[in-house]
Amino acid sequence: MDRNVELKQLAVKEIEANREEVEKDPFRPHFHLMPPVGLLNDPNGFIHWNGVYHVFFQWMPFKTGHGAKFWGHYTSTDLIHWELAPTALAPGDWYDKNGCYSGSAVTHEDKLLLFYTGNVKDEEGNRETYQCLAESQDGVTFDKKGVVLELPEGYTPHFRDPKVWKHLGKWYMVIGTQNLEEEGRVVLFESEDLKDWTLKGDVTASGHDRLGSFGFMWECPDLFELDGTDVLLFSPQGLEPDGDQYQNVYQTGYLSGALDYEMGTLAHGEFSEIDRGFEFYAPQTTLDENGRRLMIGWMGVPEQGEEHHPTKAHKWIHTLTIPRELRFEKGKLIQRPVQELETMRHNKVEKSATLSENKIEWEELNGTVYELLLQLKSVKGSFSVEFRNHATMTFNSVAQKLTFKRKSFVNGNEETRSCSMKEVNELRFYVDASSIEVFVNNGEEVFTSRIFPEHGDESLVFKADGQTEFEAAKWKLA
Ligand code: FRU
Q1: Which atom of ligand 1 is found nearest the CA of 69?
Q2: Which of helix, strand or coil describes residue 83?
């Protein structure tokens, strides 16, 4: 039997054998994509094709750790109801035997094309990398077409995650890599036919005068035009913590400016982190058929306490974020939950209060899965919202700081992530059974984090040290 077919069958068996165990986990998300079993990491191949949204994902079906990845596949017509499709890619060929690593999708001549990295390791652990192509007529079954691009000179085999797009009749591809001195960078390729690819050079790299020394490896690049600006999104590895910045094990952020397609270089300013929370990595965007730039990310970070996730006891780990719409406004990337999410709302409850050195809990606002929208009319001192005695969002108007705090799932200690904020007038929380995504001031900043509170505790407490006037609206989500 073909090795790919065999591997896909084994993955199906693994789903069936563990279905009950996975389904009884109270930490299972209600409105986030998760693996049917095993480990999920990066979103891949995000595309809107003939009215259907496709999100593929890095998938290890056989354990809750990393390894030879498959591409799992979800589809949806509305970004809300998702269906698990048959496994798109399995690591069953010589050029991808240690993993069908991350990549992207484009459509060409009525076909859906996947570009991905074939990861190969020999017995001594030496790595090889191949950029590969797979094609589909129906968006369900994919035919591998093999290697389209080999490692060029000047880069180590940490050379992966092709993101392909079309610009003025030509095809372009960015790849995340490092040079032989182990300095992170993104390279650009050009093609007339999606088969022959010519290296243009480094789009930008560690050592650039607006970046300085900037990590040993850059993963999962994405380059797109948004509201008149070119944005390069990527996940650098090897940045040292710097004040509130770069607190996670690995980072994700963007550079903005203008891409010179002839030279292959991006003229850009400084790097900005795209998320302020604990778990956000390797996001990917697509331009949907309505002209929106949508982004979905992995709600996890490589090597960041992964072995301590409590869901591993139920044979699964990690989720993707909710889909978000991106805009570039006043020199900044703005993220907003896609509007479709509003159709999940029901049972609206509204409250308002002025708190002065006290706290309040309204029974009707408690819960585990909901959207909470807070309008802060005035904050003097500090105002906080505490979720399930486990995680807290606090705005301190004197220190001009916004801080998310949670109990660590590694050791139970309190840990925080913060960013400076002159003013906070709106906080929108998407709360799921084991995650919180907070959109600040209509998408100016976002905090994305997993939470693992005590089961049964559904409390939601508002507290003012000082005086705060606010309005709250809460919807159950289903
Ligand atoms: C990012 C990443 C990618 C790689 C994939 C492997 O999380 O390391 O660079 O393609 O995951 O699963």
Answers
A1: 12
A2: strand
Q: What is the mean pLDDT of the chain?
A: 98
Structure tokens given for 28? 């299972």
Q: How far away, in angstroms, is 204 Cα from ligand 1 center?
A: 20
The predicted structure's pLDDT at residue 191? 98
38 Cα to the center of ligand 1, angstroms: 16
Average pLDDT over residues 117-124: 95
Ligand 1 pocket mutation, candidates 96, 102, 128, 299, criterion most atoms within 8 A of CB: 102
Q: By CB neighbour count within 10 A (0-12 exposed, 13-18 middle, 19+ buried), where does 171 fall?
A: buried
User: What is the architecture of the domain spanning 343-477?
Assistant: Sandwich (2.60)
Q: 141-156: per-residue pLDDT in tens?
A: 999 999 999 999 999 9
For the stretch 448-471, pLDDT in tens is 999 999 999 999 999 999 999 999
460 CA → ligand 1 middle, Å? 36
Instruction: State how far the Cα of 425 lies from the Cα of 375, in Å rounded to an integer.
Output: 6
How far apart CA 72 and CA 324 sit, in angstroms, is 21
How many whole angstroms from 334 Cα to the centroid of ligand 1? Answer: 25
Q: In the predicted model, is pLDDT for residue 1 greater than 90?
A: no
- Burial call 251-289: b when 16+ CB within 10 Å, e when fewer: bbbbbbbebeeeebbbebeebebbbbbbbbbbbbbbebe
Catalytic residue among 42, 161, 222, 465: 42
d(CA 376, CA 414): 26
- Name the 3-class secondary structure at 3: helix
Integer Cα distance of 304 and 410 in angstroms: 9
Q: What is the mean pLDDT of residues 240-259?
A: 98
pLDDT band at 387 (very low <50, low <70, confident <90, very high): very high
pTM of the model: 0.98
CATH code assigned to 3-337 = 2.115.10.20
Q: Is 129 in the pocket of ligand 1 (CB under 6 A)?
A: no
Q: Give yes or no for a contact between 415 and 405, defined as CB atoms under 8 angstroms apart.
A: yes
- Report the alpha-carbon distance of residue 175 to residue 186 in Å, rounded: 6
Torsion of CA 108, 110, 111, 115, to 10 degrees: 20
Domain layout of the chain by residue ranges? 3-337, 343-477
Q: Cβ(216)–Cβ(176) under 8 Å? A: no
| Ligand 1 atom at minimal distance to the Cα of residue 219 | 9
